[in-house]
Amino acid sequence: MSTPGRQISKVLIVGGGTAGWMAAAALSHSLKGTGIAIELVESEVIGTVGVGESTLPHIRHFNQTLGIDEAGFLKDTKATIKLGIEFHNWARKGDRYIHPFGDYGHPDDTVSFHHHWQRLGGEAAMGPIDDYSLPIQMARRERFARPTTDMGSLLSTFSYAYQFDAALYARFLRGFSEARGVKRTEGRVVDVALDGETGFVTAITLESGERIEGDLFVDCSGFRGLIIEQALKAGYEDWSHWLPCDRAIALPSASTHELPPFTRATAQEAGWCWRIPLQHRVGNGHVYSSAFMDDARAEDILMDALENEALAEPNRLRFLTGKRRQQWSKNCVAIGLASGFLEPLESTSIHLIQVALGYLLDFFPTGAWDPADAEEFNRSMSMEYERVRDFLILHYHATERDDTPFWDYCRTMDIPDSLTWKMELFRERGVPTSYEYGVFLPPSWIAVYIGQRILPRRFDPLAHAIPEDAARARFTRMKTEIAALAETLPHHGVAIGMTRPPASAAS
Amino acid sequence: MSGGPAHILIAGGGVAGWMFALAAARTLLPLGTQISVVDDGADESLGGHTLALSTLPGVQDHHHALGVDDIAALRAARGSFKLGESYTGWTSGGAAILPYGDTGADLGPVRFHQQLLRLGTRVPDMDLAGFSLAGEAARLGRFAPPSPDPASILSTLDFGLHLEAAGYARHLRDAALKAGVQTVEGRVVSADRGADGRLCAAVLADNRKISADLFIDATGERAALISGVLGVAWESWAVPGLDRIASAIADHSVPPAPLTRNEALSGGWQRSVPLYGVMASQLIFASSEMDDADAITRLGGKADVSAFNPGRRETPWKVNCLAIGAAACVPDPSASAEHYLAASAALRFLKLVPHRDGGGVEAREYNRVFAAETGSARDLAALFYTAQTRTETPWKAARTLERSAEFARHRALFDARGRIPRSEDGLYDEAMWAAAFIAARVQPRDHDPLANGLNQTALKQRCEHIRQLVANTAQRLPAHGDMLAQLHGGRS
Predict the structure, then answer these.
(1) Using the 8-state DSSP alphabet, how is residue B106 labeled?
(2) Residue A181 and which of A331, A442, B209, B427 are 20 to 30 A apart at CA?
(3) Given CB atoms, is B453 within the 8 Å cutoff of chain A?
(4) Rounded to whole angstroms, how far apart are CA atoms A100 and A90?
(5) Quick one: closest CA in B to A65, which residue?
(6) Distance between CA A203 and CA B231 in Å, rounded?
(7) Taking a C-beta distance cutoff of 8 angstroms, is the pair B35, B15 a contact?
């Protein structure tokens, strides 16, 4: 199995779905010309989880790299634009804020806007910080225009992502991949064969009896981790003491007259509900902790939250938050849910697939199977997972809610040292930690801190460099400009070329 | 709610002290903060052995942020341009050049050096400089400023600077004084501490005391405050076998090469930083092989010699004292890190200006980034010491230099397939790490398999085309010496 100088000649992707087809698309694009064959095995019987309908702006880079045309993609995946996530009831019942994909104020200021805002009296004197974010004001008005690169313009202060039908995206990428030579095989895997000496995976066997060999196995089989866990016993790091939600119910409903360009996450008694508007329907779901809530109550809450008729039967999911100890073990790399699970609160599932594919291509193995590649992949992915994990925990922990045992637990639980430190730095001095790698830039951290009532005890003394009156006048003007600009932008539906604009645009 | 510090006292001038003063003045004087520098004119801030700075590319950005005028600084510091570094004698074979700026061009995810590996070029024969306009110009002694037009091949140039420390410090001092920084003639030797453990007044050699809210220790390796008063430990990066350093600056009539030279010799290695009209040299050597007198002779008869003790402070910011320059870190000269670390210290501080009575969380964040930055400088130097193949006793010893986990990771990945891991807050980007491994002649066992997708014939033609374009362009650039003569107005 391990032969120096020998190259990988075949990649076998086990499992379709979003992860499997994203892997097939990225690998078929980047391995072009290498002579490496790519085959994907999936079973239509198993179906996909497909709850990852809400994405981060990085997905656009993924599509661009593959040369995917945005207009065709939007149409084929029934996608809408996403400018951020609106959080309801998180720090206190009745609270509402948007975590936008963009900056507050102008990012070229030496002193970050939130320091100025606080210096000038914060929300009481200056109004919500949301008023100083163009993407938030666009989102609230259901409006959208693409960002520009002109740094002087307010239109350069944001980015955007998509909300789409993950099953349609997988189908879209399947077409892309098959056109680039990826072979698709239908079948259910019943056996994984390991080399007696090295423990490397040699082949899988399908229900039909067909045996398929490979050199590199990409496990996209979902939660159960058909190869990475069941065959290779990579182990699992359980993070459920920090993120106790372990169940979800997903349910699509009919579109309403609205087409919000954002995802909504509403905190409930023991978890939260999502609402993701697509072109043709609305995705809904309830993520909850079975230790604090039974399934029947969870379903009642979801039903109550629906804004229109349900279009299907509820889809029930179970999961354990955490990550595979070795996401790359032997000659198997786990991607997607097979590699770990972090709840979709910040829409990171598809992003983590994309990141894993990036690292896999960076450290693509040869037949020498140098352990340095797997180690670097695992180290990098652990860092990515941990950074997302900390950001998610912040949403639960930064709360004043004491109305249910669930929130009491989250508010008082021990959190990772890495997050304790981040929160302390912001609470004391308003400094968000920044890192080069790993998702969520300082503006995201600032949005959630302030949205969840973690206000810095002290702001940057450099904010005093501008006289108070001048600062007040400048930012008040900015607020007016942002609102005025948002008003002039096209309606969301129109901007994405929907043939039938929603009712609100016509009215 | 309290404001920023009312009085910042900088103990020691020099490059680090005055650079900090200038940057702080621009930001903090408008807030009413008083900034004073206690300086006796002895520039020890970067360590007595640093007579010249050889910077990394990006120095222009640092200068812009600090408020330093590049050209004025060059003129004041007998400056010259730096298009890369050369290494001679570290392994068998001729000189290797580590060029700045772009080298070749990536093809999608396939880095340029992987393309050369794919074509079967062995690292000892790999001449990255031939595919880099900066590298080729350096070899020919030519220079031109980069073009902002991305369509022009001149946009692929990037450069650092060679600066004489004394002249540069004077320039920074003049700018800081002009900006409103106060200066106190004297030498800080200690400080008084309050009951809360914070420093409250600096103690001068003549027993004068000056109180302040925040103290910047720019006293160099003396570390009068951070070590002398606060006792913060030093982490040594001593190189086994190489324990002394000699430094000299001497007249030099040959036009300066736009290149810092690193030449390994039997008992140590010599670093040459060519300035306008003078040459700054350092000899890092083994006292077992060479005595101080020999070292001085080698550097032309007049040199300072001291113990070579690279390393860093465990926490450069403690309570209300921040150590900068050599009081915080003495990087190995081969890391070209002195300027970057001094600039980054001042700029990072300005993002974390503490309140009058604060400093705890700011210090922790500052120290976190400091550890990452200095770690990368330590690791780059470790690359050359551990990859050299010399057989003399001190060099054999140098190969046993302790490798950090971070460096071991870099080395293992490059050994395997010439890959560079991602690392945060480091001084060197991925391309520079790759160029450094190649300059150190580290041969990977294999190359990036993604490069196998490239058509060999087309790739070969493409590389040859780049090489010719680079060669033709480099020949037409002005001579570095002429550029400097113009810049310095004939003065030397």
Answers:
(1) -
(2) A331
(3) yes
(4) 16
(5) B108
(6) 61
(7) no
